[in-house]
Amino acid sequence: MPHRTEYSTEDLFTFQRRIMRTLFGWGAGSAVVGSFWWVRGDAFWRGVGMQCAAWGAIDAAIALFGRRGANAKAATRARGAMTDAEYIKERQTFGRILMLNAGLDILYIVGGLLFARRNALRADRRGAGAGIIVQGTFLFVFDAVHAHTVITQSKEDVERSMSVSNS
Fold this sequence. Notes:
Layout: H1 12-40, H2 43-78, H3 84-118, H4 123-165
Helix pairs in contact: 1-2, 2-4, 3-4
């Protein structure tokens, strides 16, 4: 029997709302701390702070829009206006989006590393590179872990759907 997580039977839209809270918390925290470093830090920490503030604001906005979309789709499903096949497709699409994002996150990390190395003599740019690495690393872990969960759930959905249709 495959490993089942605590949330392995969780509804997709409940799952999306839950992980959007995590992303919002990271984003808001990054924006606040990053803003402080940007204003109060030395050149290196201003660079880190600028990246954290910018990425944090974007992450928080993505989380708010993601939660709003999950709420709308949950309402559609609750009204019975979404078939099981459409629901499975939603889960598969979300899993693919998270996997694509995880791939992009690796590029962010590498880009931050290269930027910091190419600008080794400029503390502000080294800091900006470090900030990109920090943000990209969080997003990679976030996207990869949640992609694994969604893809596993998607396979379980398909198996359940096939067993019901074969009955």
